Every structure is written in C-alpha cells, then in structure tokens.
Amino acid sequence: MTVFLSDLYAIAGRHVHHLVRLPEKLIGFTVMPVAMVLGLGILFGGSMRISGGGEYGAFVAAGVITVMAV
Q1: What range does the domain containing 52 cover?
Q2: Which residue ranges traverse the bilayer (predicted)?
Q3: Is 12 within the bounds of a domain?
C-alpha cells in the first residue's frame, strides 16, 4: 500500500508542477466540462427524453464526467 501511495504522490506532484508552469491547462480542465454540459444541455435538453423517466441533464453530466476522467 505504501508503494501505491508513494507512486500516487509522485504522479500528483508531476501534474501539479505542470499546472503551475502552464496555467492555461487548468482553465481548460475546468471550463471544458462546464461548457460541454451547458452546451449539450441547452442544445438538446428540450428535445431529448430518457427511457425510464430520468433527466437529460443528469445523463449528460454523468457522460461528460466519464469522458473527462478517461
């Protein structure tokens, strides 16, 4: 478990170091998912129906989060 945590710490440190050197990446990481959720929600929100009675906004948000995580 300690090897996993040390590797996780090293990878997180590298990502933070890159974000400090290139702050535009941070803007991209935060703005892109919000823009996708708003864009898809506004564009298709009124015309889509989910079978089973779910909300389209929740469906899109879950999809965008999954895409951004991958």
Answers
A1: 23-70
A2: 26-46
A3: no
Q: Compute the distance between CA of residue 55 and CA of residue 5 in angstroms, rounded to an integer.
A: 38
What total number of domains does the chain contain? 1
pLDDT of amino acid 15: 87
Q: Helix 23-44 crosses helix 2-21 at what angle (to 10 degrees)? A: 90
**Residues 21-48: tens digit of each pLDDT:** 988 888 888 888 888 888 877 777 777 7
Measuring CA to CA, how many Å separate 10 from each of 1, 3, 21, 23, 58? Answer: 14, 11, 17, 20, 34
Is it the case that residue 4 has pLDDT exceeding 90?
Answer: yes
